[in-house]
Task: inverse folding
DNA sequence: CCATGTTTGGAATGAACATTCCACGTTGAC
DNA sequence: GTCAACGTGGAATGTTCATTCCAAACATGG
């Protein structure tokens, strides 16, 4: 039986159609539907026979599946899976390589620029892989419940905390930025109570001050959440929750791209949690 | 004639082999080589006949080409082109979607986190597209020739300039960070001479102070390079060079991921240019 | 428990495919 | 100018492929 409905025009439409109708599909077709969405690359490259084998159905089932969604045959459906791969923007390295071989001799500044852009990309990739959603959620809850959030950061980490401070200000979340002027830091921290919380940031080489301050807070029963770049960071041991974000570097210099994204996500999540009560 | 050499193991090896031998290849094979490197996706998906047509050669030439590089036939070579697409990390949206449909109900904080990570990715993508390498190079030269670099930034831009300040300090580049304490800014700027230069950062809504200061510098013959998020920024008109970096946002909040990458590339490029004289 | 419609597995079919083969052209050496 | 070696185009070939078809298994409603 050939369906009269016309086939989805692109992969997203197909995906939507599959999800919408997956309840009313017979057993084997459901099996194909699941396989198709889980292994889109296999569908794109494989032959009906090879796909059928790994999906544990008959080739004819694949054809039937395609026809159920309005295609003339399996090949028509396969085109959508291929188009998806085609349109997917090429990887970073590929693009840079294209630039290089076209431009022949690039200025050094361009090389450096591309390097940092690529490093930023990799950092953000690593970020999503490294951050555990549950730990993140716990941290948000912890900080959202604090009366005042103390932001502890020095040197390389300071731009991050200063941006969080800016955002907290806009979001009407009470905070104290520690690390600005010399001397008064400890006085400010002395006012913190266990109803408050601290967010400490420190990357290697660790500013020992930050670690000392974080430890002092923890000792007084003030929960500490921290962002660092190593499990061996002195911050890790005194923190209720801690996150390891490794920024990819270019020529030894790190941009804070991933850390910034993390910081903003944390900041906004905290504000959102408070708003909802 | 069947070559005895063994075929490249991955796409990069093949690419290298093609580039290495492209000089000694006969006419039609050179044609195929060029087509293959320019349209790798076509090779991955097409059939020998379709590829032959768009490369304007005979299908048999494709087979010969593959054999020249040690493959048994065209199909063997095609496998490498397909593997390349397969291994290419999937796009960000794809991965997030996978996360979503697996995790079913995600905590709101996770959604926010993913949103910022995706936004950071997009921002960095846009960055490479938006920055003109020549303008970047000119800016580097301009700032590298300055005696002192004045960093002008307020509010949301301040974290960027403060990180540049940190890096400049490490790199032994003389700078003045403007925008820290209230009041003394204008006094500091008054000391600048045309042998210096300024780097101004301002995003909408623009801190009018920064624009005023940048204009004042420009009026006194001090070259200004600026980073902003719109061509209509007041900074653009008074700057010798200016860059437009649009940060993708998540729920109205922007992380500074792309700007940070840009800032670090600029900073390191300046230091590098100075080091080389 | 039967009748009817639907789903499924597997063989049959014909089209599309990569590959091979051979005759013709082109190039370069002697 | 002739010959040999190499490169090239296009038809021939045998294989692989998607598709179709049909009978058997399975559900579904009376």
Result:
């Amino acid at each position: 039986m050939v369906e009269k409905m016309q086939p989805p025009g692109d992969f997203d439409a197909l995906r939507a159609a599959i999800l919408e109708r997956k309840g009313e599909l017979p057993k084997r077709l459901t099996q194909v539907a699941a396989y198709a969405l889980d292994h889109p690359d296999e569908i794109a490259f494989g032959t009906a026979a090879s796909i059928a084998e790994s999906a544990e159905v008959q080739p004819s089932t694949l054809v039937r599946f395609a026809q159920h969604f309005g295609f003339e045959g399996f090949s028509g459906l396969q085109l959508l899976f291929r188009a998806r791969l085609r349109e997917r923007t090429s990887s970073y390295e590929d693009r840079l390589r294209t630039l290089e071989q076209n431009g022949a001799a690039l200025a050094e500044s361009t090389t450096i620029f591309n390097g940092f852009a690529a490093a930023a990309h990799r950092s953000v990739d690593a970020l999503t892989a490294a951050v555990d959603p549950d730990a993140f959620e716990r941290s948000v809850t912890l900080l959202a419940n604090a009366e005042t959030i103390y932001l502890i950061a020095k040197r390389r980490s300071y731009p991050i905390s200063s941006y969080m401070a800016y955002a907290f200000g806009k979001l009407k979340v009470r905070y104290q930025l520690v690390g600005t002027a010399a001397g008064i830091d400890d006085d400010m921290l002395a006012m913190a109570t266990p109803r408050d919380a601290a967010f400490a940031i420190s990357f290697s080489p660790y500013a020992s001050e930050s670690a000392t301050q974080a430890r002092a807070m923890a000792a007084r029963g003030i929960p500490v959440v921290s962002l660092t770049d190593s499990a061996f960071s002195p911050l890790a041991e005194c923190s209720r929750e801690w996150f390891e974000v490794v920024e990819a570097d270019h020529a030894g210099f790190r941009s804070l791209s991933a850390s910034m994204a993390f910081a903003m996500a944390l900041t906004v999540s905290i504000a959102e949690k408070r708003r909802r009560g």
User: Anything to note?
Assistant: Residues 108-130 of chain A form the longest helix (23 residues).
